[in-house]
Amino acid sequence: MGAESSPKIAIVDENPIRAAILEEGLREAGFTDVVRINEMQSLLSRIYALDPDVIVIDLENPSRDVLEQMFQVSRAVRRPIAMFVDQSDAASIQASVDAGVSAYIVDGLKKERLKPILDLCISRFNAFSRLQDELDRTKSALEDRKVIDRAKGILMKAKGLSEEEAYVLLRSTAMREKKKIGEIAQSILTASELLK
Amino acid sequence: MTKPLHIGFIPLIDAAALIVAVDKGFTEAEGLDVALVREVSWSNVRDKLNIGLFDAAHLLAPVAIASSLGLGHIKVAIVAPFNLSLNGNAITVSSALHAAIMAEINGDRFDPMATALALSRVVTTRRKRGAEPLTFGMTFPFSTHNYQLRFWMAAGGIDPDEDVRLVVLPPPYMVDSIASGQVDGFCVGAPWNSIAVDRGVGQILHFGSEILARAAEKVLAIRQGWSEKNPQAVAALVRAAAGAAEFVEQPENRTEVARILARPEYVGVDADVILRTLEGRLKISADGTVRESSRYLLVGREGAPRPDPVQASWLYAQMVRWGQAAASPQALTTAMAVFRPDLYEAAIGIQGEHRRDRSNSIRAFAGPDFDPADLAGYLAAFKLRRGLP
Predict the structure, then answer these.
(1) What is the 8-class DSSP label of residue A3?
(2) How far apart are the C-alpha atoms of B381 and B378, rounded to whole Å?
(3) A83 touches chain B (CB under 8 A)
């Protein structure tokens, strides 16, 4: 591999969305030679066929142990990993484990060329986690809204309230009991189910 | 205890003492607040222990040594004040390989030397035929599984790096891999051998305890720095684990222990399979043949909980034999210092009883008696080896 050429990066991730986000980030940063592996069967032989310079893997993946084998010198290992991160890189390890990603350099690539790749992976993985959290929050907000609408309907019917009045009642109850509106609405639904 | 301790584990039966210590309240009784964290790979357990995300972990004994020696990863000194298990592994082969070995065998099919020599003949025949080399799965480069497979094969004249392929496979993938023909056999801990037998895709050829009578398998691993700063927590953890290990071994508790381990947040497999492991009664083939061994898995019996530095030196000797570590007296001392019987004994408050000489405690089925004081002499007795002592 010449000094100028882009290193070949293999992304091992069973989550296709995260892998796509990572690949896009790497391409934007000028790493044009990126391959995704989402099939864990015969991972080692897939990797030998691709012959990458850097392997990036998510920490939820049990196959991480398969890559550790590449440190060994044996018939099964054709091109050993020279170094993962050295002793001075404790901070990098910490950041990458926190983000949930790990990177391996295959023999031949200079260590300093890994740093920008690893940093990018860490930031993309963190971005993905934030995205996931946001998605979860949006989902639960949507759920809440459905529950609140149904609770309002029950109150309107039972107490002859307008929609506005039903909502005010829900909100003031939530404030008084220091609970979320969604929780009060859910308890109204549960109670009405029990009283049916 | 104000801050909860985070302890990592891999879903395997040999985490029993740790899981039961927490689930049955042994840790709580010691004033410890413990959060168990289930992990998917040994690399994750090692890294999270090394950087302090875990305070302690269920860890492959050789990984604790490799980490202290800086092999394969950053160097972080680890201590093992408690041995979670001895033995517990088995070698399982595909039905096709089993038939091939049995066709070549001279002697007792449960004798590891007889099967190793038979395997050697199978390997030779395949080579003459131009067939692909046999592939065997194991769990990690620094694992007892790796060393047991190598020790067994090499005794029959098979070079594990040249004549066959040894590949790392995560334990939950072993059964599928033997079913799909990706591997011809594997060495793994419970419950995966039994699951392969139950699915009719493999036969248990040997219990690990037939290769080595006593082999340190999983340890309770702690960063040395942390253990020095928190001696009381370490002692409390050792006592809780010791209480749990004893609980696990009581025959009347086995059903309950199997049910606890079977829960999805722990091992997540059928309680019956776990019970067979705890009882050392394993179905070895799909036709229902059962073999028993009281030594299949030792958790709280026969002095298993006491970390034995001789065990550490044997594991280090395997690293040297297979070229993972250079031979040096300093490295040997470092490796032996990972296993800390002193911390165990101080916590438990017993002495003497387990102090007798265990220098021959490994008891391998082949090769000379192991003597950590003469590592070079021991290794020189093996024809097949990588590193030169």
Answers:
(1) S
(2) 6
(3) no
Tell me the pairing of strands B89-94 and B56-60: unpaired
* A43/A123 same-domain check: yes
Distance CA B99, CA B103 (A): 6
CATH number of A45's domain: 3.40.190
Q: Is A1 within a domain?
A: no
| CATH number of the domain bearing residue A172 | 1.10.10.10
Residues A109 and A164 in one domain: no
Nearest by CB: B168 against A42, A68, A84: A68
Q: Tell me, yes or no, whether A3 lies in a domain.
A: no
Nearest CA in chain A to B76: A87
* Residue A4 domain-assigned (yes or no): no
Which residues are within 8 A (CB) of A31 and not within 5 positions of it... i.e. 6 or more apart?
A: A6, A7, A9, A117
Chain B residues in contact with A61 (beta carbon < 8 A): 40-41
Q: What are phi and psi of B187, to 5 degrees?
A: -120, 120
Q: Mean per-residue pLDDT for B3-31? A: 97
Pull the structure tokens for residue B40. 């998917």
Determine the topology of domain B5-86+216-265+324-357 in CATH: D-Maltodextrin-Binding Protein; domain 2 (3.40.190)
Mean pLDDT (chain B) is 94
CB-based contact A93 B47, cutoff 8 Å: yes
Put simply, the answer to whether B43 touches A71 (Cβ < 8 Å) is no
Which A positions 89-118 lie with beta carbon below 8 A of chain B?
89-90, 93-94, 97, 102
For the record, the structure tokens of B185 come out as 């056999």
Q: What is the pLDDT along chain A (196 residues), one digit of tens a residue?
A: 444 578 899 999 988 988 999 999 999 999 999 999 988 877 888 888 888 888 999 988 999 999 888 777 665 565 555 545 555 567 777 888 888 888 887 766 777 777 888 888 888 888 888 888 888 888 888 888 999 999 999 999 999 999 999 999 999 999 999 988 989 999 999 988 888 7
> Nearest-CA distance from B129 to chain A in Å?
20
Q: Do residue A100 and residue A148 come from a single domain?
A: no
Taking CA A86 as the corner, what is the angle to CA B41 and CA A89, rounded to the nearest 5 degrees? 90
Residue ranges of the domains in chain B?
5-86+216-265+324-357
By C-alpha distance, the chain A residue nearest B387 is A73
Q: Are residues A66 and A103 in the same domain?
A: yes
**Location of structure tokens 């034995």:** B308
- A137: burial class by Cβ within 10 Å (0-12, 13-18, 19+)? exposed
Please tell me the distance from the alpha carbon of residue A144 to that of residue A151, in angstroms, as a whole number: 10
In a domain, A122, yes or no: yes
Q: The domain containing residue A14 runs over which residues?
A: 9-133
Residues of B in CB contact (< 8 Å) with A are 40-44, 47-48, 50-51, 53, 70, 72-75, 133, 139-141, 161-162, 165-170, 172-173, 180, 182, 323-324
Q: Report yes or no: B41 and B170 within 8 Å, Cβ to Cβ.
A: yes
In a shared domain, residues A91 and A150: no
Among candidate residues A133, A152, A186, the one where a domain is terminated: A133
- The count of structural domains within chain A is 2
Same domain, A83 and A150: no
